[in-house]
Design a protein that fits this description.
- The structure is a single chain.
- This protein is α/β, with parallel strands linked by helices.
- The chain has four domains: about 100 residues, no CATH class; about 180 residues; about 160 residues, no CATH class; about 90 residues, Sandwich (Immunoglobulin-like), CATH 2.60.40.3080.
- It is about 20% helix and about 30% strand.
- The chain contains twelve helices and 36 strands.
- The strands form six sheets. The protein has a 17-stranded parallel β-sheet that branches. It has a seven-stranded parallel β-sheet with strand order 2-5-8-10-13-16-19, with no helix packed on it.
- The radius of gyration is 24 Å and the shape is globular.
- It starts with 10 loop residues before the first strand and ends with a strand.
- The N terminus is likely disordered.
Length: about 600
C-alpha cells in the first residue's frame, strides 16, 4: 500500500468492528502515509440484524493478528523522506473493558514481528481487559518530532495481562533522537503487564510507567544511552523480583547526574516498587533521580535490594513465558494497601484513592481467585458490592452486552446515595468512595451515555465536542475512563492523534482545581496567587483573572494539542483581568501557560468550539 504523499492523516488500513473473529492484517507493506494500520474494536453506528454468533453479546471478541508488516515513511527503493514521517505505525483500541466478562487467553491481540522505520510513534494498544495483547519481536526506529509531544516505540494502556517482549527500539542517531519526549516503552494503568527482554538505544526515556500498573514484571531489559533509563511517572508497579531473585535489567553506556538510570516524579514513591538487582556496574543503578514529591530509588532506603542470585531469563525464553498474573503475594499486598488507603500520595489524594480502589475492584471482578489468599480483599469486595465501584462495572457490563435499556435506566440513579466510606476496624479497609469523587463517577456516566448515543447513531455536534473534552482530561485526576474516551474519540473522528499527558499532573496541580475545570472556568494556583481562565469552552475570546493584584508584566504562551506555540506575548493585568481576543483559533484543545514576574508558572487547558 502506498499513500498519496500529501501530508494529512491518511491511514493505510482501517478496520472497525465491535464483533470480530480472526481478524488478520498481516504481511503488508505500507509506506508514505501518515498512519499505518488502525483496528478499533467498536463499529461505526449501524443496526445489526445478525450477530457473528447467535449467542454472542453486543460486543463479540475473537483472534486479532496484526503482524509481520513493514511500515515506513519512504517508498521502497527510494531515498529516505526527511520532511514527513509515519505518525503512528499500528493502533489497536477498544472502548469497553467489561471486567465481568471471562478472561480469554486463547484469542489474543497480536502485534508482533513488525518492522517500522521513521515513525513518531510505533505501537499503541488501548483498553483490552478480556484479551491478552502482545507486542513482541517488533523492530522500531523512532524519529524525533519538532516540538514537545509524547512519543513512544510501544504504548500499552489500560490492558490486563499484556506482554511487551523481545522488541528492538532505536532512536535515529543522525538526527539526535535522544530527547526527553521519546519513550521506548510506555505503560499506563495496566494490570499484570510483562515488559521483558527488550533492547532500546538512543531514546530519551527507556521504560516509563505512568499511574498504577499493579502486577508489573519488568525484567531482562537493556537500556543504552538514555536521558532516563527507567521512569516512574506518578506510578506504582509493585515489587520487582522473581521470588526474591534479581531481575537482571541492564544499564549500558554512560550514566551520570544528567543521564540517570532511574527517575521518579509526579508523586511516585520507589519504596512501593522495590527493585531486586544483581550486584554489578551494569545491573545496579547508582545514578537515581527524581522531581516533585519523590522518593527515588536508593539502596539506603531499601528500594534497591542487592541479590547475588539471578532470577531472570535469557532472551530466547521470553516468548514462552506464561501470561503475567496478579495473584502473587507482592501484588496482593499492593492491592491491600490501596484498599486500606495506606499509599502515601503527596497530591491529588482523593482521586488517587478512588481510582486505585476502583481498579482493585475491577481486578477482583475479573479474577475472583484474588480473594482466596486475602481476608483484607475479601472484606473490601464485600463492602464494594454496595458502592459506585460495583455500579460502574454493572453499567459497563450492560453496555458491553447490548442491554442499553438497563444502562439508560442506571444512568438515572442517584449516585450520591451509593457512595460508600465504610471502615472495617478489623481488616483496616477504608472505602474511598466519597462524595468528593462525584466528578469521576460523572465522567464515567458521561462516557457511557456518549458511547450508547454513538452506537445508536444519535451523536450531535455538542456530543462530539464532549467526547473530545473527556478524552483531553488528565487520567490521573479524572479516572482511566479518559482512555476509554480516547478510543471513542478515535472512532468518531477517524483521528489517531496522541494525547499528551506529560504535563497534565502539573496543569491539574490540585484536586479542587480539576473539579473547577469541569465547569465553565479553569482555576490554577501557585503559592498564594490564583488565576481563573473563563469561559471554557470558548470561541477563542477568553479572559484571565487574578486573585491577588499584581501589576507587573506576565508572559502568556498558548500552544496547540501537539505542542506548537501559536501565541506568545508580554501582558499587563488591568483591574485584575486580561481579555484575549483570539477569534482566529480553530476548534480544538489548547494549553495556556502564564509565567509571572517571580517566574512562577500557571497552566490551563481550554477548548475552542468555533472560530
Amino acid at each position: 500500500m502506498q499513500g498519496s504523499g500529501v501530508w494529512r492523516r491518511e491511514i493505510g488500513c482501517l478496520v472497525k468492528s465491535a464483533k470480530y473473529d480472526n481478524v488478520d492484517i498481516s504481511n503488508d507493506t505500507i509506506n508514505n502515509v501518515s498512519d499505518g494500520i488502525a483496528f478499533w474494536a467498536l463499529s461505526d453506528p449501524e443496526p445489526y440484524s445478525v450477530y457473528p454468533h447467535p449467542s454472542a453479546p453486543w460486543q463479540y471478541l475473537g483472534l486479532c493478528n496484526l503482524s509481520n508488516n513493514l511500515i515506513q515513511a519512504n517508498p521502497l527503493g527510494t531515498a529516505a523522506i526527511t520532511t514527513q514521517m509515519v505518525t503512528l505505525g499500528i493502533s489497536v483500541q477498544n472502548a469497553l473493558p467489561n471486567a465481568a466478562h471471562a478472561f480469554d487467553t486463547a484469542n489474543r491481540i497480536h502485534v508482533d514481528d513488525n518492522q517500522m522505520n521513521d515513525v513518531y510513534e510505533g505501537v499503541y494498544v488501548n483498553n483490552f481487559w478480556k484479551q491478552v495483547p502482545t507486542s513482541n519481536s517488533n523492530n522500531i526506529t523512532l524519529r524525533p518530532y519538532t516540538g514537545h509531544r509524547l512519543q513512544y516505540g510501544i504504548n500499552h494502556t489500560l490492558c490486563r495481562g499484556s506482554q511487551i517482549y523481545s522488541n528492538l527500539i532505536s532512536g535515529d542517531v543522525a538526527t539526535a533522537a535522544k530527547n526527553d519526549s521519546m519513550r521506548a516503552v510506555y505503560a499506563s494503568s495496566n494490570t499484570g503487564i510483562g515488559v521483558a527482554c527488550n533492547t532500546e538505544t538512543m531514546i530519551g526515556c527507556g521504560y516509563e510507567f505512568f499511574l498504577k500498573n499493579p502486577g508489573t514484571a519488568w525484567h531482562d531489559n537493556t537500556m543504552n544511552n538514555n536521558i532516563k533509563g527507567m521512569v516512574l511517572n506518578g506510578a506504582i508497579i509493585g515489587t520487582q523480583h522473581f521470588n526474591g531473585l534479581a531481575i537482571n535489567n541492564q544499564w549500558l553506556g554512560s550514566w551520570g547526574a544528567t543521564d540517570t538510570q532511574t527517575y521518579v516524579y509526579h508523586g511516585a514513591n520507589a519504596i512501593y516498587d522495590t527493585m531486586y538487582v544483581a550486584p554489578g556496574t551494569i545491573t545496579t543503578p547508582v545514578f537515581n533521580g527524581g522531581w516533585i514529591y519523590y522518593w527515588d530509588y536508593s539502596t539506603t532506603f531499601g528500594s534497591i535490594q542487592l541479590e547475588t542470585s539471578h532470577g531472570g531469563v535469557t532472551t530466547p525464553f521470553c516468548m514462552s513465558l506464561p501470561v503475567v498474573g496478579v495473584n502473587q503475594s507482592p501484588e496482593i499486598a499492593l492491592f491491600q494497601q490501596i484498599t486500606q488507603q495506606q499509599i502515601l500520595y503527596p497530591n491529588n489524594v482523593i482521586p488517587n484513592n478512588w481510582i486505585g480502589q476502583f481498579a482493585t475492584w475491577q481486578n477482583i471482578v475479573a479474577d475472583t481467585t484474588i480473594l482466596d489468599s486475602s481476608t483484607v480483599l475479601s472484606v473490601f469486595a464485600s463492602l464494594a458490592e454496595n458502592s459506585r465501584y460495583a455500579y460502574l462495572t454493572n453499567l459497563d457490563a450492560a453496555v458491553a452486552t447490548g442491554d442499553f435499556h438497563d444502562a439508560w435506566t442506571m444512568l438515572g440513579y442517584n449516585i450520591d446515595s451509593m457512595a460508600n466510606t465504610s471502615v472495617d476496624s478489623v481488616s483496616q479497609v477504608r472505602m474511598a468512595d466519597n462524595l468528593a469523587s462525584d466528578f469521576i463517577v460523572q465522567n464515567y456516566q458521561q462516557f457511557y451515555e456518549l458511547y450508547m448515543k454513538y452506537a445508536e447513531h444519535r451523536l450531535h455536534g455538542a456530543d462530539s465536542l464532549a467526547i473530545f473534552g473527556l478524552a483531553s482530561l488528565c487520567p490521573e485526576i479524572n479516572g482511566t475512563v479518559v482512555y476509554q474516551a480516547r478510543s471513542l474519540y478515535s472512532a468518531v473522528y477517524n483521528d489517531l492523534s496522541t494525547f499528551n499527558d506529560d504535563s497534565c499532573m502539573d496543569i491539574d496541580s490540585s484536586y479542587s482545581a480539576e473539579r473547577h475545570a469541569n465547569s465553565n472556568t479553569v482555576l490554577t494556583n501557585n503559592g498564594d496567587q490564583n488565576y481563573i481562565l473563563y469561559p471554557n469552552p470558548n470561541d477563542g475570546n477568553l479572559s484571565l483573572q487574578q486573585l491577588i493584584t499584581d501589576t507587573k508584566p506576565v508572559s502568556v504562551e498558548i500552544s496547540d494539542i501537539v505542542g506548537q506555540s501559536i501565541y506568545k506575548e508580554k501582558l499587563l493585568f488591568n483591574g485584575n483581568s486580561i481579555n484575549l481576543q483570539l477569534g482566529t483559533l480553530i476548534p480544538g484543545m489548547y494549553l495556556l501557560e502564564l509565567t509571572d514576574n517571580e517566574n512562577r508558572s500557571f497552566k490551563f487547558k481550554f477548548v475552542v468550539t468555533k472560530s
